[in-house]
Structure formats: C-alpha cells, structure tokens
Amino acid sequence: MNTPRITLTRMSAPFALWALHFVALYSLQGLACARQLWRTPVAGLETMTWVLWALTALVLAAIAWEALRVWHIRRVLLAGDDTGRADHTRRRFMTTLGLLGAAVSALGVAFTAAPLALLPTCA
Predict the structure, then answer these.
(1) Full-model pTM
(2) Environment class of residue 76 by beta-carbon count within 10 Å: exposed (0-12), middle (13-18) or buried (19+)?
(3) Which of 23, 38, 89, 105 sits between 20 and 30 A of 75, alpha carbons compared?
(4) How many helices and strands in the chain, by DSSP H and E?
(5) SS3 breakdown of the chain: % helix, strand, coil, rounded to 5?
(6) CA dist., res. 64 & res. 23, Å (int)
(7) How many CB atoms lie within 10 A of CB 24?
(8) 103 near 89, Cβ under 8 Å?
C-alpha cells in the first residue's frame, strides 16, 4: 500500500512562513517610517498598511494550504487499517504535530500583525 508521506519540510513550512512574515512585516514598516515609503492615504489607510494587510492575508492563506495538505495525509492514514505498525503510528503523530504547528503559526502571524491594526504606522 502506497501511503502518503509527511516530511520535516512540510511540518516546518508554517513556522518558516511565520518567520518570513515577521521579518517582512517589520522591515517594510521600518522602510515606511524611515524613507516615507508608500505613505499616501488610500481609503482611509496608508498604502503601506494595505500592503502589509495583503501580506498577512497571503501568509495566512499559505499556512492554511499547508494545514489542508497535512489534514489530507492524516485522513488517508486514518482510513488505512495499519494500527499495529510503528511506522503508521509515527506518521499519525507527525501529522498531528504538523497540524498543531500550523495552528501555532497562524496564531503567531495574527499576533505579529496585531500592532498593525492597533497602532499608527509611524508613532
């Protein structure tokens, strides 16, 4: 039986997306303040704020996509009847960790983006 595989890369992808979001968010915020980059208001918010919100939405969508891929692997593994095999149990455990990692990463992205919503761009 050809069971799907979960790799360390797939498990760590949400954490990498969270880290990239953190670096990009605060780098772009610093550029907006230091260089007056994209500070013109559009629909009540500065252009940079819209860019940062779009970046946050894109990263959350990518984390959700990775979580859905891991969820699919988990469903296939649970549908199989290999409960006695240690490898099967390890894969189920890894998919559970992958889903929990995606949830923690999504929460981290939300907390990283919270100052964007609560504070002015350059205080």
Answers:
(1) 0.84
(2) middle
(3) 105
(4) 3, 2
(5) 75, 5, 20
(6) 20
(7) 15
(8) no
